[in-house]
Amino acid sequence: MATKPTRRMALTTFVIPAGHHKDSWRKEGSRIEEVPGLEYVAELTLMAEAAKIDAVFFGDIANANPTLRGDIKTNGYFEPISTLSALAARTTSIGLIGTMSTSFESPYTVARQIAGLDHMSGGRAGWNLVTSFDGFQNYGFESIPEPAERYRRATEFAEVVRQLWDSWGDDAVIADRENGNFIDPSKVRKINFQGEYFSVEGPMPGPRSPQGQPVIVQAGSSGPGLELGSSVADAIYTAQPDKGRAIEFYAELKRMLVGKGRNPEHTKVLPGILPIIGETLKEAEELAAELGSYVNLEHGRQQVSAGLAGVDLSSLDYDEVIPVEWLSEDPALGSRYQVFRRRVVDQKMTLRDLIVDMARSAGHQWIIGTPQTIADSMIEWFEAGACDGFNLNSPYNPGGMKQMCELLVPELQNRGYARTEYEGTTLRDHLGLPRPTA
Ligand SMILES: Cc1cc2nc3c(=O)[nH]c(=O)nc-3n(C[C@H](O)[C@H](O)[C@H](O)COP(=O)(O)O)c2cc1C
């Protein structure tokens, strides 16, 4: 008999109501006409809550560029804070993680909005910190700052947000009716932050939120991304299609955490996984083929080009492999570029295969199988030290979300790797993270 696991996986789900697999909205029953309305996304979120998943996660592509290239799976249709605020009112337990960009926003606004979501949800808020790679023209930039520059700003940004979250002590509110004092002024502090990018006086306009510091997720895996993540993140989202590399990435991050005096168990590494599920392997393969058949190859050519730093692919036949010399080796192009570059250089994928691969999972791991075989593989990654859990990407909706929540997660529950009831009330509770005091 298999021994009982000693730890559980952290599980979140990256909600894209149009489906993660590109063009899966064409599948019958997709309910694409209801995007971006509340009822549909609330139904998807409630499925995840019924499966006792830690959190729903909303990315944010704050520009129309993917849609104009024919990619309508983009997650920019659901502005995260408005969506999650509505979902806070429709749910009771599940965590609510939303993306806000450190390149586009002001730290004072982000601190307020995420803390506001934490108040409104009773301590279920998380902020996915991204530096963004597109859409800068919408925010007054003429060109995209270099990654190193974006991460420098992001590092300062996160520092300001955290200082603001701590600017009210947990015991600052005394609500002393008799003497008419609502707060103890000695427990509310200005932060007087002066940095290279930001000058923020503080304090926050209102009390500390239930989690004290809402959960910070960092989605970026390059050198500077890891540097920032290991300094401030409670969880890391990362695209890791290869188990060996995922183990190296995991070990490196945990080493960095220890080096910075942080508890390595308090930063969860959550690679994305896109499961294509069938009751039998044959059924799953048929579903994968069906989803693949929806992919528009001409749009795919443009999307591959965009994923590979704009390389001109117009002259390439679908059955050709992109010549290696067309692809830059510049490490500044970021971790996802490197994932796609390896597909060409190491795996010699043809343009057609690359289009389908990218359509499936945008560089994340995808897996075709039964709930049992997919759970086997997830457990293998988890036990091998490749991750602390996963960010589940539903390939098509609502059917794929239903399969994940009603077939795959229960399989993990049966084997003791996923919870069957929420034990705590906050997202920090779900992830097993302590609450920082101020
Ligand atoms: C699961 C996941 C979700 C992401 N979501 C967003 C997003 O919503 N908006 C965004 O601008 N970038 C998003 N990113 C991209 C990262 O912020 C980052 O730009 C990208 O991973 C490249 O940075 P890196 O080279 O440091 O890894 C996401 C990345 C991952 C792994």
TrEMBL record:
Annotated signal sequence range: none
Residues covered by the Luciferase-like domain: 26-386
Top-level taxon in the UniProt lineage: Bacteria
Gene Ontology molecular functions: monooxygenase activity; oxidoreductase activity, acting on paired donors, with incorporation or reduction of molecular oxygen
Protein name, as recorded: LLM class flavin-dependent oxidoreductase
Binding-site list for FMN: 60, 99, 151, 221-222
Family: Belongs to the NtaA/SnaA/DszA monooxygenase family.
UniProt keyword annotations, A-Z: Flavoprotein, FMN, Monooxygenase, Oxidoreductase
InterPro entries: Diverse_substr_monoxygenases (IPR051260), Luciferase-like_dom (IPR011251), Luciferase-like_sf (IPR036661), NTA_MOA (IPR016215)
Pfam families: Bac_luciferase (PF00296)
